[in-house]
């Protein structure tokens, strides 16, 4: 019944809008209106073009004022992060210069050369020099960006095995994450989903007969020692997922049937990041907003106050609960890490039989 | 085409004219003008309304997550128990919104309407090369629309794996309800759609190559036709690849093959698939998927070129550079698909290659933008609604295109991939820009289609509110994306980390609702003008192209007598030595007059 009523109401609102437009329309009858722009239209819309240019600039400035602290272009927590952030800032500067200048020219010309009866436009069909200039400038600027970008990309994607990275498997399934450490030998045991044996609590399909697998450690919270290179090996058991760690400027898809990889070195511990003034501002801001929505949040059974943590998010559509597929990441000192991993069960000991 | 040949064709049509019944005139019509109107009504108006309504529901869910909403309750029925939208249907809405807007509205709707209407009229042909194929093409499109909409009424819901339908999610009903019957219908609908699109494209290509009137050399073609022509070529090259991907996916789904699937454990069982790779699907999908962006955008740019020149009363600046950049974009568009897959697990070296080719595309795009701006310079701008939408298109094309420099850069893509940054980018550069192209085209060629004028003041209202809302929606969205917020999340309430984006989300939804509502103004203007609009003159915009030399009242064969011959390019606006500020293409050169653009 309510459904029917709402449909009716929506319908009536639409009809009302329609009628309002109609009145607007009828009000113009009697005008000797040809429906072709005349000088008055050209003038008004010319001014509106300038108005719109101001609007574009205003929304840019307002976005920076109110949303400017959202972008992750500082405070990266990985060694390669500043490289990406610098490239991002340079690209943004280029973009904003081009944006401001071209939008100005476009809208200013639209205003400046608004039509008038009797005026004649300039017949100007071609100018090879001009065109060479604005083909050349993008070529040079883009060449710079491409070269910088490719060096950055190469640095990130080239995995330096000499640095003896800690090997960690990120294992994705609908809708949660697991992490597997190589253990004492830092070598992951072989694994395949065909070896999954739920009755034996072998949930990742690790090869029970592989000697390298015995000391593997499987956890649901990712701990990383600060300053130590980590080589992630990603696996998925069902559909595509994407391991997205925004604070570390890291992301790689998890693809069923293959192992993908990504490596980085965390540089800031969780505790240090929580002391960062920017992060503290952000957390304070978030908590103010959360206190406003106190009832709603408590009803949902969440903690009212937010405390900063690094996160691993799923960033590839993976089904119904895609929106809540996350894992906490803790970056800590080597000692803290060693103490933590000692408490975890090894694979051998986690099996039921 | 010789003059005698033309007369002959014309006679044929005249005989046919008398036998015309309601069915052959309005339903199974083979006349390109009627088919264009059919595409406009089905592809742009009806599918457009459905697609936009879905986007508004998506925005409402994002702004007020998991809260009861009577609109959801009434429109979504069992998928919004108590008015709270279900997470599955959210993904379905995202999926079908994307599919409808990209394929049905901005591919079939845009090309179907304007290629059909303008190719024969602007090149001086009696009709398409094959009216029959053209009719089949429309009706296949109609069937695919019906099937896509029907998928909302199957038990487990419509396809919900995103418009990119990456397997295994799209292949396994166990992974998602929508991957059952809903996905089957999606694939069937798309297969029919592709057949329709290919028939249409082949027809456009053949028509442009063979049926140009006397004097219409390729270098005198209006840029609209160049754009439609090249679009059709890209479609013929890339759509078959999507068809093969869809067929292989159907094989995997229904016949147990393993093209895209391997080593899967789901809901307690190991599936038999072995040796396939989802990455292969991604390659096949994006081999169409990226050219598709230009299949959507190029016709809009073609329309803009024509409208900006006409309303500036100036030749389009750098005609040859414009043609060259269309060709360059078309070529590059087929070798950049990998920039959607930087982090798919493919070899990082490939990432470098695709970064290189992708950023190259910025060069012809920049040339186009600068040429539009220069066309305005020292013009005599007639601010008709079509002109406003064209200027608006250039604006959003620049704003949206610039962020492509970030996304095309593999190193930067790592952190903004699949976030709202991407959503903002592609909506501006291809969604909004192409929609503006559609609107510009409708306002400009409405007199040609219906013999009446649309109301300009409603057009102004429509443009300005839409333009403000488009920026209001998509500009702040970049910032949310750069905060790391992934797209396609049903709600962000499980991530307190993103709580500081909620106010921005609310503002965006407000802009979206206003922007959606103002489309009613357009709808009203469109429908009422068909019946009550002011009668149009033969050439209301004082344009040079041939379509305005045909009589206002539509007829088979387009021109009553001989097809006009062409003596000049279509951009002789404000040419020195002429009294009027336009010289139609069928006006012979004066003695001693030169073709100045060469």
From TrEMBL, chain A:
Q: What is its main location?
A: membrane
The enzyme class is translocase
Q: Where in the cell is it found?
A: Cell membrane; Membrane
| Start and end residues of each Cytochrome oxidase subunit II copper A binding domain | 163-343
| Reactions catalysed according to its record | 4 Fe(II)-[cytochrome c] + O2 + 8 H(+)(in) = 4 Fe(III)-[cytochrome c] + 2 H2O + 4 H(+)(out)
E.C. number(s) listed in UniProt: 7.1.1.9
Residues spanning the membrane: 6-24, 44-67, 87-111, 132-153
Entry-linked Pfam families: COX2, COX2_TM
Q: Which PROSITE patterns match?
A: COX2_CUA, COX2_TM
The question of whether Cell membrane is a record keyword is answered with no
List keywords of the entry alphabetically: Copper, Electron transport, Membrane, Metal-binding, Respiratory chain, Translocase, Transmembrane, Transmembrane helix, Transport
Lineage, top-rank taxon, reads Bacteria
Cofactor descriptive note: Binds a copper A center.
Cofactor(s) listed in the protein's UniProt record? Cu cation
Q: Which residues form the Cytochrome oxidase subunit II transmembrane region profile domain?
A: 64-160
Q: How does it sit in the membrane?
A: Multi-pass membrane protein
Task: Give the protein family.
Answer: Belongs to the cytochrome c oxidase subunit 2 family.
Function as written in the Swiss-Prot or TrEMBL entry: Subunits I and II form the functional core of the enzyme complex. Electrons originating in cytochrome c are transferred via heme a and Cu(A) to the binuclear center formed by heme a3 and Cu(B).
Mind telling me what this protein is named? Cytochrome c oxidase subunit 2
Automatic annotation (TrEMBL), chain B:
Name of this protein: Cbb3-type cytochrome c oxidase subunit I
- Entry keywords, A to Z: Electron transport, Heme, Iron, Membrane, Metal-binding, Respiratory chain, Transmembrane, Transmembrane helix, Transport
The subcellular location is:
Membrane
Q: What is its main location?
A: membrane
Ranges for domain Cytochrome oxidase subunit I profile come to 22-567
Which family is this sequence assigned to?
Belongs to the heme-copper respiratory oxidase family.
Keyword presence, Iron: yes
The protein's organism comes out as Winogradskyella vincentii
User: Membrane-spanning regions, if any?
Assistant: 39-58, 89-119, 139-166, 186-211, 223-251, 284-305, 317-337, 349-374, 386-408, 420-446, 458-484, 504-527
Question: In what way does this protein cross or attach to the membrane?
Answer: Multi-pass membrane protein
Q: What is the lineage of its organism?
A: Bacteria, Pseudomonadati, Bacteroidota, Flavobacteriia, Flavobacteriales
Classification via InterPro entries: Cyt_c_oxase-like_su1_dom (IPR023616), Cyt_c_oxase-like_su1_sf (IPR036927), Cyt_C_Oxase_1 (IPR000883), Cyt_c_Oxase_su1_BS (IPR023615)
A Pfam family matched in the record: COX1
């Amino acid at each position: 019944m309510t459904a029917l009523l709402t449909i009716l109401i929506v319908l009536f609102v639409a009809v009302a809008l329609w009628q309002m437009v109609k009145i607007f329309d009828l009000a113009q009858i009697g005008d000797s209106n040809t429906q072709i722009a005349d000088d008055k239209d050209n003038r008004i819309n010319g001014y509106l073009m300038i108005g719109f240019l101001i609007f574009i600039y205003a929304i840019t400035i307002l976005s920076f004022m109110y949303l400017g602290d959202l972008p992750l272009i500082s405070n990266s927590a990985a060694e390669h992060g500043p490289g990406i952030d610098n490239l991002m800032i340079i690209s943004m500067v280029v973009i904003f210069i081009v944006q401001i200048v071209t939008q100005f020219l476009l809208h200013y010309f639209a205003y400046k050369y608004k039509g008038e009866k009797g005026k004649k436009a300039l017949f100007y069909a071609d100018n090879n020099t001009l065109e060479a200039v604005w083909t050349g400038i993008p070529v040079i600027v883009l060449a710079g960006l491409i070269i910088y970008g490719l060096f950055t990309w190469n640095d990130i994607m080239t995995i330096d095995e000499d640095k003896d990275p800690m090997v960690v498997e990120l294992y994705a399934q609908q809708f949660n994450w697991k992490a597997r450490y190589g253990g004492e030998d830092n070598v992951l045991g072989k694994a395949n989903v065909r070896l999954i044996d739920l009755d034996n609590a072998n949930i990742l399909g690790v090869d029970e007969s592989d000697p390298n697998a015995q000391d593997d450690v499987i956890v649901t919270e990712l701990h990383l020692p600060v300053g130590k290179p980590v080589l992630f090996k990603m696996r998925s058991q069902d559909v595509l997922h994407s391991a997205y760690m925004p604070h570390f400027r890291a992301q790689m898809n998890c693809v069923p049937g293959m192992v993908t990889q990504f490596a980085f070195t965390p540089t800031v511990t969780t505790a240090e990041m929580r002391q960062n003034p920017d992060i503290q501002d952000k957390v304070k801001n978030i908590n103010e907003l959360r206190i406003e929505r106190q009832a709603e949040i408590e009803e949902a059974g969440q903690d009212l106050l937010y405390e900063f943590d690094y996160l691993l998010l799923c960033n590839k559509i993976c089904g119904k609960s895609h929106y809540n597929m996350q894992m906490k990441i803790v970056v800590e000192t080597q000692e803290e890490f060693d103490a933590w991993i000692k408490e975890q069960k090894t694979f051998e000991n986690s099996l039921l039989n | 085409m010789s003059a005698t040949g033309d007369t002959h064709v014309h006679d044929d049509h005249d005989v046919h004219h008398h036998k015309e019944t309601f069915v052959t005139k309005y339903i199974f019509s083979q006349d390109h003008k009627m088919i264009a109107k059919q595409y406009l009504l089905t592809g742009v108006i009806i599918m457009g309304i459905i697609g936009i309504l879905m986007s508004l529901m998506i925005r409402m869910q994002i702004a007020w997550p998991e809260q009861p909403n009577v609109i959801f309750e009434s429109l979504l029925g069992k998928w919004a128990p108590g008015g709270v939208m279900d997470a599955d249907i959210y993904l379905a809405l995202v999926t079908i919104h994307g599919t409808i807007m990209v394929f049905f509205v901005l591919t079939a709707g845009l090309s179907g309407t304007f290629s059909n209407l303008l190719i024969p009229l602007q090149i001086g042909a009696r009709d398409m090369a094959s009216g029959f194929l053209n009719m089949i093409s429309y009706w296949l499109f109609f069937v695919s629309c019906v099937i896509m909409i029907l998928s909302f009424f199957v038990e487990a819901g419509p396809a919900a794996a995103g418009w990119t339908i990456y397997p295994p999610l799209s292949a396994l009903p166990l992974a998602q309800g929508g991957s059952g019957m809903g996905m089957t219908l999606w694939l069937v609908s798309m297969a029919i759609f592709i057949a329709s699109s290919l028939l249409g494209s082949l027809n456009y290509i053949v028509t442009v190559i063979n049926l140009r009137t006397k004097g219409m050399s390729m270098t005198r073609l209006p840029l609209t036709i160049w754009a439609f022509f090249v679009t059709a070529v890209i479609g013929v090259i890339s759509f078959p690849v999507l068809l093969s991907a869809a067929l292989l996916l159907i094989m995997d789904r229904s016949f147990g093959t393993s093209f895209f699937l391997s080593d899967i454990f789901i809901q307690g069982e190991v599936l038999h698939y072995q040796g396939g790779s989802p990455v292969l699907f991604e390659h096949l999908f994006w081999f169409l998927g990226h050219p598709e962006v230009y299949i959507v955008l190029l016709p809009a740019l073609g329309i803009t070129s024509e409208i900006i020149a006409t309303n500036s009363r100036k030749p389009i600046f750098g005609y040859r550079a414009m043609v060259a950049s269309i060709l360059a974009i078309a070529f590059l568009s087929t070798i950049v698909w990998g920039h959607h897959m930087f982090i798919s697990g493919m070899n990082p070296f490939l990432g470098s290659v695709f970064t290189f080719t992708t950023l190259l595309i910025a060069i012809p795009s920049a040339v186009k933008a600068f040429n539009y701006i220069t066309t305005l310079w020292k013009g005599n701008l007639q601010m008709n609604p079509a002109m406003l939408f064209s200027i608006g298109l250039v604006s959003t094309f620049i704003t949206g295109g610039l962020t492509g420099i970030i996304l095309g850069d593999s190193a930067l893509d790592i952190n903004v991939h699949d976030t709202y940054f991407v959503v903002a980018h592609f909506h501006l550069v291809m969604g909004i820009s192409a929609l503006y192209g559609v609107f510009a085209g409708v306002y400009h060629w409405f007199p040609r289609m219906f013999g009446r004028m649309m109301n300009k003041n409603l057009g102004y209202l429509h443009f300005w509110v839409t333009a403000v809302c488009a920026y209001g929606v998509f500009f702040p969205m970049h910032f949310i994306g750069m905060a790391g917020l992934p797209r396609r999340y049903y709600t962000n309430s499980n991530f307190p980390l993103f709580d500081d984006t909620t106010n921005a989300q609310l503002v965006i939804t407000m802009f979206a609702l206003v922007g959606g509502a103002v489309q009613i103004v357009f709808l009203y203007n469109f429908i009422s003008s068909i019946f009550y609009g002011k009668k149009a003159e033969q050439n209301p915009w004082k344009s040079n192209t041939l379509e305005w030399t045909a009589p206002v009242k539509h007829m088979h064969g387009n021109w009553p007598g001989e097809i006009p011959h062409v003596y000049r390019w279509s951009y002789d606006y404000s040419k020195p030595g002429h009294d009027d500020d336009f010289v139609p293409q069928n006006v012979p050169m004066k003695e001693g007059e030169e073709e100045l653009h060469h």
